[in-house]
Amino acid sequence: MGDHAPVTDWATDFDHTDDVWAADPYAIWSQLRETCPVAHTTRYGGAWLPTSYDDIASIAYDTERFTSRSVVMSEFRPPHALAPEGIAPPISSDPPFHKGSRRLLLPIFSPQAIDKLEPSTRAYCEELIDQMRGREIVDAAAEYAQHIPVRVIANMLGLPEADADRFRGFVNHVLEGVSLPLEKRAAGMMKLFEYLMVHIDDHIANPRDDLISFLLGSERDGEKLDPFQVVRTIALLLIAGIDTTWSAIGASLWHLAGNPADRERLVAERDLMPLAMEEFLRAYAPVTMARLVREDMDWNGCPMKAEEWVLLPFPAANRDPAAFADPDTVVIDREVNRHAAFGLGIHRCAGSHLARMELRVALEAWLDAFPSFELADPEAVRWSGGQVRGPRVLPVRVMSQP
Amino acid sequence: MKVHVDQDRCEGHGRCYATAPAVFAPDDIGNGHALGDGTVEAEHERRARLAVANCPELAISIDEPATTGDAR
Can you give the residue range of the structural domain that contains B11? Predict the structure, then answer.
């Protein structure tokens, strides 16, 4: 993908958009962990790649020396003038500003609030399944997984469901268009903000019961949020809520399609779902975050320069044998599973309770309808590269229940 | 035994109340709290220990009574 030269040396020239990475990043991380646990590249203006759980955790916790001013690695570094809130608060904010901006969102994404969205999410999953019934081969990523988070987040935010294709376009641009030249990338971001501003203006004129109106009515330090902060937070929720959950649902279905023993056991023992889900989240964690180095420093022997990137591959942390027994084996009843799929520290994914609900409901509805399914063509499966990894093409053969 | 969630460390992953709902509950921002004074009934001890083992932020501590000190 992208226009980058193929990688020949992962320790000194890595690129997370390379086709080899997209196909199987685990082999790359595993080899680096043993030979060069913090890799470097001069691409993207310089970037580092820690691969052990401990190093990834220690950088995630170190908000002094690593800033979240941007969390998506590309050629584009957002202007310092956007600090302290950054381009999409609170994910792009550092302490102390971060806390207040995150506090606004947490009650909306609390487990109690998310529970209320379960019936509509289930109904939507069943609707998607009904459209697939009667066919032998369906694409579990393109026809099922990808639609669920788009519908859920659109309804939550207060954006038209009919714009789903546009959302996916915006998200794809932000997350996968990282190799584009700076002007093109900036122009794409502007389109997203312009689209959202139209809807925010409409919500200012006609408030309703959704997240955009809620944020417009919210206060921070005794002052109403200005529409520009609201638009940036809405952009974050849209971008963070779609590809990530789509990837988690798709990767879990991919595993079950290729591992009949696990599928049969989960169908027979539905009580295992909570453990199985956490194991899928560990083994196939979709999200890698990024940070920027604040100032030149020596970090554990690595000469890090200000404005260099650091990738935080939480999926690599989850496969570190120093942190997990037999990390490359999926054990669907793994009981001790302190995985970092939703990050560590103050930037723990604010939507993790929503993501878990969507993943559980999507898997339950699928297994109810299709207790028996398999990969129709393993060679045809395609995984996304970049910082959010999941199957984008996933043909499966389904045997419907009568 | 008694459990305690350190609110300075808790980031609201929710693994404790998902693993041991008889021992932990979420507050309005999703952070975990020990129910009551944190005392764990014998029948819930196994789940409480699993909650400790699954907390990504290592935020939960266990207080073992000195008289029954065989931790695990």
Answer: 2-68
